[in-house]
Amino acid sequence: MSDTIEVLMTLPLDEKLIAGLRNLSPRLNFTIQPARKPEDIPDEVWERTEVLYTNRVIPAPEQAPRLRWIQFHWAGVNHVINAPILKKPDLVATNLSGASASQMAEFAVMMMLALGHHLPELGAYQRRGEWPTERWERFAPQELRGSTVGIIGYGSIGRQTARLLHAFGARVLATKKDVMHPEDAGYHPPEQGDPGGDLVHRLYPVQARCSMIKECDFVLVAVPLTPDTQGLIGARELEAFKPTAYLVDFSRGGVVDHTALIAALRERKIAGAALDVFPEEPLPADNPLWKLPNVILTPHIGGFSLHYDERAVALFAENLNRYLEGLPLFNLVDLTKGY
Fold first, then answer.
1. Domains and CATH numbers, the chain
2. What is the DSSP annotation of 117-177?
């Protein structure tokens, strides 16, 4: 590794954020080159780049012979996981898992409250200008306090959601690939998440997800999209739901089988759903989900935040310091897992 580390950033971040990165070490030399495709970057810049910060602008292996580390701007990397350069044996990639956990956890709690308190139906009455009869029978809520919430995927988002749910008095269950190690070695901002795995009442292996679902009043889906998670929540899993339980999906389109979900919603096999991600985006206007009364649809905005870039750069700064010191980086992408 040379004394000077050439860092290329392909996103137009605020100069105040970049100034903070420049102040980390005199060894870091930053090139800020907003780009949409690799061809937007001059060859001489690719040739000298050692560290790349980007969303999806990735060079061919021969374009960037000195590249050693790619830091992605998003937590999900399924859109770039097959890029040839990621297979270089001397290159590592990291994602931004943890940077969006705070706002996504708030989004999940908002959706659970909206579903449990019948907000879609209340909104329909308001639009009709109608004062409903039998209000107790129609609108007695499924409160978070005392409810059981199951989280499919106990990563950074699931752990921050568990922290918020703990304050509500909910019982939290979760699935995790390795239930023998509940702790989280990834990045988490101070006072966030559940680094020790102390806020979950019980962990289930992914293969036992139906056993967990049977216990739940709310089921949250928070896994990345990989070959293993494609269709992870299908007809069998939806059959395990209580008829009074709700689904909240803020993972990636394709994790939940929407054909099976639409059938379960129409037949009232589950009480309702809040969906932020879809197999096809934008969601087509003729999709039946638009007209189902027990569904909340949002246009893939669960991770939006006015503070996202600030949180992303904070994580990048942590990793840059670790890179300078020769320490393991946070959030290493595992190509065999797909995230």
1. 5-99+306-325 (3.40.50.720), 101-297 (3.40.50.720)
2. TTHHHHHHHHHHT---SSHHHHH----STT-EEEEES-SHHHHHHHHHHHHHT-EEEEE-S
Q: What's the whole-number average pLDDT of the chain?
A: 96
* 281 is annotated as an active-site residue: yes
CA angle, corner 97, sides to 214 and 163, nearest 5? 50
> Beta 148-152 vs 92-94: how paired, if at all?
unpaired
Q: What is the tens place of the pLDDT at every residue in 251-291?
A: 999 999 999 999 999 999 999 999 999 999 999 999 999 99
Task: Give me the catalytic one of 163, 209, 252, 311.
Answer: 252
Count CB-CB contacts under 10 A for residue 179.
Answer: 16
> Exactly one of 300, 310, 318, 322 is catalytic; which is it?
300
Distance CA 223, CA 233 (A): 11
Determine the Cα–Cα distance for residues 161 and 154; give it in Å rounded to an integer.
9
DSSP state of 85: G
Written as six digits, the tokens of 273 are 């759903």
Q: Which residues lie below 8 Å from residue 150, measured CB to CB, with a gap of 6+?
A: 172, 173, 174, 175, 212, 213, 215, 216, 218, 219, 220
pLDDT category, 211, cuts 50, 70, 90? very high
Element of type H or E holding 295: strand 295-297
Catalytic residue, chosen from 15, 62, 183, 281, is 281
Measured distance CA(171)–CA(4) in Å, rounded = 51
